[in-house]
């Protein structure tokens, strides 16, 4: 049998790229809106959106035009010089977050590292924690990235094993447990770092009032509340930030993914002057962070979010998605559905197949999702998806699970 182009490209990738991912066997060639086309010309509905990096869809015209215009002007200066998009980017992003200052980076993990460094420095310089004693409290089952410091406070053995020695200074408490958090906070605690909804853990929404409780506790104890909104933020849950669902404003937002509009990697830490004002030249940085191309694309993302249109769409379609998925619970195949807005974690009964098997079956029917933790699939389509396409995707899920009406 002759090898298909798909098989040949996958074999070649397997031979020459590190096996740090286990992608579905599809090779994408082009994409537009909520749809991707593979090298054989087959079309797929994207129900993952690059883990929320593609909230505004593939090839979004406004974002592509902004990028193209900037490509013709200047793409990179490094921070050795000023460039003419930087001030506007920082001002507008700070305003979107209701904060004073922005520290731009590139990837999510870098932004989390930046938040960790900022909290420690704030702890020593502002709070007065003795040198070297700063402690940051994090949640079990977190996912904040892949650097050595971040995996040091992961509870996922796959993410951690063989990567020690680990960075000290972190304490792990169960997610959603305010009493455990209260116990863990000491005079040396400089920050609590959590995801307002845990994405990689399976789209885990904390108990009602948890975020508000974290806010109250951190304020009482003079501890920074760092919200990692890299996946939950920028429209996904129907609000600009998932913290808004509990009317909570953290001290530091950590942003990434959709901030780059699916075009370029853009991340940032956004906070008050008291917090981000701790830095002096030479203490932190990135050659690419806040580059002109990144700023131009992110400015367009900010403008799109300022309209509220995408948040509204996520709310409306999200209600529909959760109503439809809710109907599957208890019917045998689906054990539980969690999430907010256009974001869902669907726990499949293992007798119907693993998350991976369900994802592969969906792929065969032209729908792309991704499994997590064995038996969960994550659904997070671009916010620009039409209701008809979403319904078609849900029909495919029902067909795969054998739960058609
Ligand atoms: C909540 C959260 N934080 C951080 C990261 C890491 O981002 P990146 O992969 O861009 O380093 C992710 C990625 O999935 C994430 O979901």
From TrEMBL:
Q: Which family does it belong to?
A: Belongs to the class-III pyridoxal-phosphate-dependent aminotransferase family.
- Stated name of the protein: ornithine aminotransferase
Keyword Transferase on entry: yes
Transferase as a keyword? Answer: yes
UniProt GO molecular function: identical protein binding; ornithine aminotransferase activity; pyridoxal phosphate binding
Q: What is its EC number?
A: 2.6.1.13
Alphabetically list the UniProt keywords.
Amino-acid biosynthesis, Aminotransferase, Proline biosynthesis, Pyridoxal phosphate, Transferase
